[in-house]
């Protein structure tokens, strides 16, 4: 096994099992992905990078191995600590089915552990799929769930990339909705903690549509969960929310099926006044309210 890079304590800490990195521009996305890969290499992980490789181009000619890529990437490609999985090859090997994608990565993960790598880090470029098609969306949702299965089976972490300029509105909406449990989107992020969906940071008009997609995904997931159908929403980490995001949240709660509620936990009085001002429906409850 190759000599490992020394960990840089200044690297941004995202240690979750399956995260979506939303990038408003190409360079923004590359910086975030490079930081994540750099840290994973430094911590000794085997890194599998799934991306688009133009015909005739070698992995060491991809941006990931160039000046904009993570430190040590070129050496990692040479030593085998990082491998490049070309998307067309992945499509050919899997048939673009959820079962095929999960099987492919399960085999790659098993091979990495057989080679004595302590952890495996998977990352894939923005999907570029027509997620307005129900069949494609179902397959995409299932294979993203496959990454969670791999994380349940061993020390595997996945970073999915979403490049906003490269995707249509339907793909952006559904990708964020599917990843509502763990995403990083510039000035805000979201996670699940103690059974509660927890957005954090600044929620303003610039991210309102993607916030709405995440709310939609959280409500949809709550309906399918054994403890559902209510969505328990932890607002304690929200630093700022503007009218646009408040309206989106209240509209989503108002549009939820009968019997589903949004249950609020934490957060400031200002947020409650804001919700009242934009029109708070009866389906939005406080955690202390009687059912």
From TrEMBL:
SUPFAM superfamilies: SpoIIaa-like
Residues annotated as domain STAS: 200-279
The organism's place on the tree of life at top rank: Bacteria
UniProt cross-references to InterPro entries, sorted A to Z: MlaB-like_STAS, STAS_dom, STAS_dom_sf
A Pfam family reported for this protein in Swiss-Prot or TrEMBL: STAS_2
UniProt-listed CDD domains: STAS_anti-anti-sigma_factors (cd07043)
Protein name as annotated: STAS domain-containing protein
Lineage, opening ranks: Bacteria, Bacillati, Actinomycetota, Actinomycetes, Pseudonocardiales
């Amino acid at each position: 096994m190759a000599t490992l890079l020394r960990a840089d304590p200044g690297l941004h800490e995202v240690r979750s099992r399956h995260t979506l990195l939303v990038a408003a521009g190409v360079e923004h996305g590359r910086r975030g992905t490079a930081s994540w890969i750099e840290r994973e290499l430094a911590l000794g992980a085997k890194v599998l990078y799934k991306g688009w490789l133009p015909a005739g181009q070698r992995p060491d000619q991809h941006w990931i191995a160039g000046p904009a890529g993570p430190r040590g990437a070129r050496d990692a490609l040479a030593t085998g600590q990082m491998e490049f999985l070309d998307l067309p090859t992945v499509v050919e090997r899997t048939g673009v089915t959820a079962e095929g994608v999960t099987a492919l990565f399960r085999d790659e993960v098993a091979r990495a552990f057989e080679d004595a790598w302590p952890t495996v880090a998977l990352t894939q470029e923005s999907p570029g799929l027509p997620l307005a098609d129900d069949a494609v969306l179902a397959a995409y949702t299932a294979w993203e769930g496959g990454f969670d299965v791999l994380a349940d089976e061993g020390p595997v972490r996945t970073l999915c990339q979403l490049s906003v300029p490269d995707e249509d509105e339907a793909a952006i909406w559904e990708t964020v909705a599917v990843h509502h449990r763990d995403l990083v989107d510039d000035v805000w992020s979201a996670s699940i903690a103690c059974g509660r969906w927890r957005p954090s940071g600044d929620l303003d008009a610039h991210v309102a549509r993607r916030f709405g997609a995440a709310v939609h995904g959280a409500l949809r997931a709550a309906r399918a969960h054994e403890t559902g159908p209510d969505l328990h929403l932890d607002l304690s980490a929200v630093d700022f929310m503007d009218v646009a995001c408040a309206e989106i949240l209240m509209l989503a709660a108002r549009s939820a099926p009968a019997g589903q509620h949004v249950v609020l936990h934490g957060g400031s009085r200002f947020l409650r006044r804001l919700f009242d001002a934009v029109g708070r429906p009866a389906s939005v409850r406080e955690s202390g309210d009687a059912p």
